[in-house]
Amino acid sequence: MGDLEHAQASGASAFPATRWTLIVDLRSSDARAAGNAIEELCRLYWYPVYAFIRREGAGPEDAEDLTQGFFARFLERGDFLSAQQDKGRLRTFLLGSVKNFMIQDWRHRTAEKRGGKLAAISLDSVTAEQRYAHEPADSATPDAIFDRRWALDTMEEALRRLEQEFREAGKADLYTALQPYISARPQGAVYEGIGPRFGMSVGAVQVAVHRLRQRFRKSLESIVAETVATPEEVSAELRHLVGLLTG
């Protein structure tokens, strides 16, 4: 079994709960653990929150401030204390939380009240607005925008983890060559062009692409599993995610 296969098999036995674990870590009396958890939570979910707020009608600067405010208040008020993994999906919990924040603080927010003694969250406002400019110019509701961005960011995270697997196995160049074909269906000439670069036959490249697609799906399933309460919910959430991107 190769390095990648071993890494995949070794992590397949336990139902992961990494992202729900972030919520648990926020309750920790260990300041470092709590700090790392909020940093990771913000990294993963700040843009879906930002896109939701923008679609609610806020301008770029207000949306950035409100996104900062949401995560600061999320900690300051202890909203995470009400989160329970067995109550449902993390996506649903966070969307409900940001809605409540908007209702309570839209007219009463100030920088002092939002930030308090908490450090500002690192948001790239230029990147945020560049990304938002590519959102569909349609009548999608803020909820739909939040879900779609959640889906896209989940896909990107799955690709990032998959790339990391290849890099750790010393096969970063192979990943770069094959990654475009995770979703596309290449012709034989494409395989013929890739093979010589890595000393692989056309058949070997075809097998490598097939395995890459399988690994990508496993990576995606693993991430989705981190955001739901039980293994039984993974398939439904995955169908929902794929439907958001293909519908």
From the structure above, extract its key features:
mainly alpha; 247 residues; 69% helix
Element string (H = helix, E = strand) = HHHHHHHHHHHH
Pick out the low-confidence regions: 1-17, 109-118
Question: Helical element count?
Answer: 12
Estimated structural class: mainly alpha
Distance, first to last CA: 38 Å
Walk me through this protein's architecture.
The chain has 247 residues and is mainly alpha-helical. The chain has one domain (3-246). Helices cover 69% and strands 0% of the residues. It is built from twelve helices and no strands. It is elongated. The two termini are 38 Å apart.
Report a brief summary of the structure.
The protein is an all-alpha fold and 247 residues long. It has helices at residues 3-10, 18-26, 31-55, 60-76, 90-105, 111-115, 125-132, 142-168, 172-178, 188-198, 202-225, 234-246.
